[in-house]
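Operator note (shift B, R.M.): manual run for DoxX family protein requested after the automated queue skipped it. Running by hand, logging everything below so the morning shift can see what happened. Input copied straight from the record, untouched. If output looks odd, do not overwrite the archive copy; leave it for review.
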Amino acid sequence: MDPTLASVGLLIFRILYGIALIPHGVGKANKNANSQFKGFIKQLGVPPIFVDLSMLVEILGGLLVMIGAISLIVSAVLILFFLGTIVVSHRMKKPLATGMNPGVDLDILFLAGAIILLLLGPGEFALLAGPQI
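Run finished. Output pasted below as returned.
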């Protein structure tokens, strides 16, 4: 495959990944939603500070993925984040979404995307790509 074409594909993937991830963090920035979510995860035995950390990871991580900055570090953080999310949320979610009930399927897709970025890097069209595998 032409390396430039592969880089265009990675650029499109990174932009769409960020567009999909950022709204999850922005939703947690709402004061009411934030406090409700903190109460909810506290019941699961997760410290409420993780709501703020997840907001930061989803917003900042999504933006950094989109521009291709420090992709090795960002993708590693996202992998750890989504592994943790899957482990914690499996207690309250089904494996697959059903109707209006969320599943862990979206978390698995975000995890897969982060693994792809870790293995392939951001491509040619990246700002401050940083070290790669």
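Quick read of the result: The mean pLDDT is 88. The CA atoms of residues 98 and 105 lie 11 Å apart.
Leaving this for review. - R.M.
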